[in-house]
Predict the structure.
Amino acid sequence: SQTIHQWPATLVQPVGSPLSLECTVEGTSNPNLYWYRQAAGRGLQLLFYSVGIGQISSEVPQNLSASRPQDRQFILSSKKLLLSDSGFYLCASTRNTEAFFGQGTRLTVV
Amino acid sequence: GQQLNQSPQSMFIQEGEDVSMNCTSSSIFNTWLWYKQDPGEGPVLLIALYKAGELTSNGRLTAQFGITRKDSFLNISASIPSDVGIYFCAGTRGGAQKLVFGQGTRLTINP
């Protein structure tokens, strides 16, 4: 099965600072990759998904961007964080429809 | 935005009771998945459904892929304390197999 590595686990960043969250996948090739954000006690909001290298679909207008420089690497970025960017960010990978998740990054913007 | 409507949003039950939750959509889905999330962790896959009408069990859990491909349910029998958590339905649709989630059902169990 797939293994999703996501780091860091927790992050506290000041408003206006840049962000880079990285996700790498083991155990599969050419997966679909996803970034989700989860507010406390809420559902998972799809932010970006990618079906291949350099191919990014954005689901909601926001302060974030995503890139896929390699087949099994997915990066979530921001040039200037806002307070509203705080949340729990999850990377996921699907291959043949079953999705596997990383352990998540809890981002607090202060 | 969300394309799956999951209900109920929360459940408070006694240990030993059975649990039922469901997801519906106005769109047809190719796959239905059910996940459980513990606090501070990523969701873990419980059951995957691939064909309309499919009924699949995983221990005390049973899930079905609706015949119209627009809904699915998850049942948990004889609940135990470790069943506490948030349960999510998810589905894939379209050629790109985009994965979307329901809003979640928070399950609380009174011993």
In short: The radius of gyration of chain A is 13 Å.
